[in-house]
Amino acid sequence: CVLLVFVSSTFGFVVGHELCHKKGTINILLSKIMLFICMYPHFYEAHNKLHHRHLGTSKDPTSASNSTSIYKHLWKHLVYYVSYANKLTLLFWTVSIFILSFNYKVGISFILFGFLNWFMLELINFLQHLGLKRKCNEPINYNSSYETHNPFTNIVCFNLGKHSDHHIRARKWHCDLEFKGDFYHKEGYLMQALLFLKPHKR
Description:
With 202 residues, the chain is an all-alpha fold. It has helices at residues 2-19, 25-37, 43-51, 70-83, 87-102, 104-129, 151-156, 163-168, 189-197; strands at residues 147-148, 184-185. The chain is globular and about 55 Å long.
């Protein structure tokens, strides 16, 4: 199950995310199919119209302040997920309920699979933008997000760690992205996730 979620997150969300920035009907269609399977069909609109446009501002639901825990961020984003849902999202949940009514084990597995994919995506978003705020009239620059210099992460996640360059030129293919920003993590996403998911005493 863990392996299935990992593979689907890599080839579903990461590749679906890559294609959602590209021109062409085929690319957009493939992107929406991948994101639908991962329980996030409205990611295409939300990511382009909100996250990339309002990166680091109060209008961006994926950017968190330094004082925000990963759990608080995920809860906030879950509320946003419901409020920004579109017809494709409703179709996903209709399919889920339909499957659930015939075979509850398959239905629960389908929903859990989608939830874990959403969780992994938002966890990575949290790591990429934590504490990096900007004013609405301030242009996005190479220091508006964190990069990850871990080779394994960038091989497995199709250069997702080169995130600063992606936000400046979103239409660039992953193989052409470069390290540009001053803010970066040496650890990969897995190690960072383990550090942030561990409860800390205050």
